[in-house]
Design a protein that fits this description.
The protein is an alpha+beta fold. The protein has two domains: 223 residues, Bira Bifunctional Protein, Domain 2 (BirA Bifunctional Protein, domain 2, 2-Layer Sandwich), CATH 3.30.930; 89 residues, Anticodon-binding domain (Rossmann fold, 3-Layer(aba) Sandwich). Helix content is 28%, strand content 30%. The strands form six sheets. It has a five-stranded mixed beta barrel with strand order 9-10-13-11-12. The chain has a five-stranded mixed beta sheet with strand order 20-19-21-22-23, sandwiched between helices. It has a three-stranded antiparallel beta sheet with strand order 4-6-5. Strand 11 and strand 12 form a beta hairpin. Helix 2 crosses helix 7. It starts with 19 loop residues before the first helix and ends with a helix.
Length: 411
């Protein structure tokens, strides 16, 4: 990608947002604020979001998830059926003929009758379906950039089973899949399975919390088991639920996923039963598994940044290489363009800063945007038939011979 053709540029003006993720993502040209809790995703930001989504998609597919896409709009009647029509977060609107409609904050009311249409007996179960789609919640306090929005991107998966025991088996598979996602995102070592309130569904639900000083949640960590307990249930569960350790350490964290057993709450509301091999009908048992790609994107920025800008993990960076041409010499430009084409021909994602701009501006923007590798082509480097290579996560730069640069960044 040529920087000169990129829609959405960096800005010298730092936004006044209260969160690091909003400030850096806006200033670096990843997102643009529409209003409180609602953002546009610009080309760089959309590339990051798509990569996060694809990692999630691959791991959900690996545990038998079937990807579907459900509507964002539905009739309010579905929420009346489940008794959730009184939720304060619902965005309501009116359709043709005065029909009452809702923008979905989640999709239990849509997915349950959908799966019911295709389930006739125990032979059709278990099944799991998921989608990656925007959700809408009328948050009273939309804040923290893309960590808490009124419109946000979410992966929601729902599993359907003949028994609570079968839900438990799939629940364990989903838990492992979530850990794989966080490992691939580069936050596996600081993301903990956390016991939380199960609300009306069960005694406990489980959250995945990424340690961060800016997190809204307070968790109590068992360093022996690498799990935690949410503050909301710490009085009830004041010890590690796995090993019994009472020496738990208080930390701040950002929730990046949650899973819980719905039991038969929604299936019963829609009279969704299955016929067993004994000929009798029983309510379908359900599980729910949520993960927010946009929230994860904001979390990564909160965790991986310095005073110069963002430091993207390679797995989700919009491009792998930030190629910078310094100086006005024609030879430098020609060699930089050759390298740009060579990188592309070798399948390397590269953002080439081809602007007529100062060295300070180009290097400052490279740090702000935060791609994993920066390559500088200049008169000085070309004098040694080399380029300067620097990892964004490291301070030290090194000269690399031009013909060896591809191998160096493919390590």
């Amino acid at each position: 990608m040529l920087y000169s053709q990129l829609f959405g540029k960096t800005s010298k003006t730092q936004p006044s947002d209260d969160s690091v993720n909003a400030r850096l993502l806006t200033q670096a040209g990843y997102i643009s604020k529409q209003m409180a809790g609602v953002y546009n995703y610009l080309p760089l930001g959309l590339r990051v979001l798509n990569k996060i989504q694809n990692i999630i998609r691959e791991e959900m597919n690996a545990v038998g998830g079937n990807e579907i896409l459900m509507p964002t709009l539905t009739q309010e009647e579905s929420y009346v059926t489940t008794g959730r029509d009184g939720m304060d977060i619902l965005f309501r609107t009116e359709g043709e003929g005065g029909s009452k409609l809702v923008l979905n904050p989640t999709h239990e009311e849509i997915v349950t009758p959908l799966v019911q249409k295709y389930t006739f007996s125990y032979r059709d179960l278990p099944v799991a379906v998921y989608q990656i789609q925007n959700k809408y919640r009328n948050e009273a306090r939309a804040k923290s950039g893309i960590l808490r929005g009124r419109e946000f991107n979410m992966k929601d998966m729902y599993s359907f089973h003949t028994s609570e025991e079968d839900v438990e088996k799939y629940y364990e598979k989903a838990t492992k899949a979530y850990h794989k996602v966080y490992e691939r995102l580069g936050i596996g070592d600081i993301t903990l399975l956390t016991y939380a309130s199960g609300g009306v569904f069960s005694r406990y639900s489980h959250e995945f919390q990424t340690l961060s000083e800016v997190g809204e949640d307070t968790i109590y960590v068992c360093e022996k088991c690498h799990i935690a307990v949410n503050k909301e249930i710490i009085d009830e569960q004041n010890q590690c639920p796995v090993c019994g350790n009472q020496d738990l350490i208080e930390k701040k964290a950002i929730e990046v996923g949650n899973i819980f057993k719905l039991r038969a709450k929604f299936s019963s509301a829609f009279k969704f039963n299955y016929r067993a091999d004994d000929g009798k009908e029983y309510p379908v048992e359900m599980g729910c598994y949520g993960m927010g790609p946009s929230r994860i994107m904001g979390t990564l920025v909160e965790v991986f940044h310095d005073d110069k800008g963002i430091i993207w993990p390679e797995s989700v960076a919009p491009h792998k290489v930030h190629l910078v041409s310094l100086g006005k010499e024609e030879e430098t430009k020609i060699e930089a363009e050759k390298l740009y084409k060579k990188l592309l021909d070798n399948g390397v994602e590269v953002l080439y800063d081809d602007r007529e701009a100062s060295a300070g501006q180009k290097l400052g923007d490279a740090d702000l945007i935060g791609l994993p590798y920066r390559i500088i082509v200049s008169k000085k480097t070309l004098a040694q038939n080399s380029v300067e290579l620097k990892k964004r996560s490291e301070e030290k730069a090194e000269l690399v011979e031009m013909e060896k640069i591809i191998k160096m960044i493919e390590k």
